[in-house]
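Query form — protein G-protein coupled receptors family 1 profile domain-containing protein

QUESTION: What is the three-dimensional structure of this chain?
INPUT:
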Amino acid sequence: MDTDTDDTPGCYYNQSVRFFYEASGKNISTHWRDRDYVIVTLGMAVCFIVIFSNLLVMAAIFKNRRFHFPIYYLLGNLAVADLFSGLSYLHMMFHTGPWTIRLSKYGWFLRQSLIDTSLTASVLNLLAVAVERHQTIFNMQLHSKMSTRRVFVIIVFIWLLAILLGLVPTMGWHCLCDLDSCSTMAPMYSRSYLVFWAVLNLVTFSVMLAVYTRIFVYVRHKSQQMSQHTSQMRHRDTVFNLMKTVSMILGCFVMCWTPALVVLLLDGLGCERCKVLRYEKYCLVLAECNSFVNPIIYSFRDKDMRRTFKEILCFLCRRQDRDKIPSSGVHFNTMEHENCKSRTADPQLSSTNGTPLIHRQEAPPPSET
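ANSWER: The structure tokens for G-protein coupled receptors family 1 profile domain-containing protein are given below.
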């Protein structure tokens, strides 16, 4: 592609990106409009939020030992996929609008492949989480007994498969030799590839929804059979809370990405009356917003995750506050520090946790008989 040799008969390897856009009916603006500035500015702002929030999730999972379990490793890998998605969209923001004309065909395929790879990695991660939850809960466990090595093998497999599917159009499933099969939304992608990619993801969504529905039915049925023993009730509540968190992540992912996949499917099927270009940007923004939804879900659903977020964000502030606290201060980090400080200040208060609210009075001497 993009060579100075003559085109192969019937193929257009040496044509510019603009040629394919014009052939498919998707116009490229040659100058920057106010709308382009707004889209790029908002897009870059969202990308930075996505990158920061998912770095925070990854740091929290790494920092807190309570998250060192297979389910959290997979959720951490989902954060890596969302981080990669943010970087992919940030790359697109610098190669969109009038900048699209300057792209080589290799550059255009790279831009699209990055986004395809990030979505595929997210879908495969969610599928792995669904399988892990199914296996764990049906064995009446809170966390899987899967080894760390096996988890990392699964993670590596997810990324290899995601990269492979992202590179499929570059390796030959394109329309450079068949202009009639070119997509409207992605002018160098074949319509058949868009149909394959959209149907594959929609089917995967359906499978995951079916798996989670079965898990919820099973958990609800089991919870009714449990006794009212405290440990069993706590275990059930913990399982339910974790399941709700994971299900909310899946539900938001499906809601954010399904419109984009449906639009791609309609474009792949050649629906001329659907006017897919009218809804393309809105669907893309909705799909992009999904990448920072997961950290919000973690914050509201998982107390340990929320507390770890606060510890990371407030680390510098708390360090500065500790430096400013005088030696006679009354702020304590732990109960042991408080007891130690109390015993040092007044031995008579060693049995209390801080300053007593009621002062003891000495008993009067016994009367002489």
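ADDITIONAL NOTE: The chain has twelve helices and no strands.
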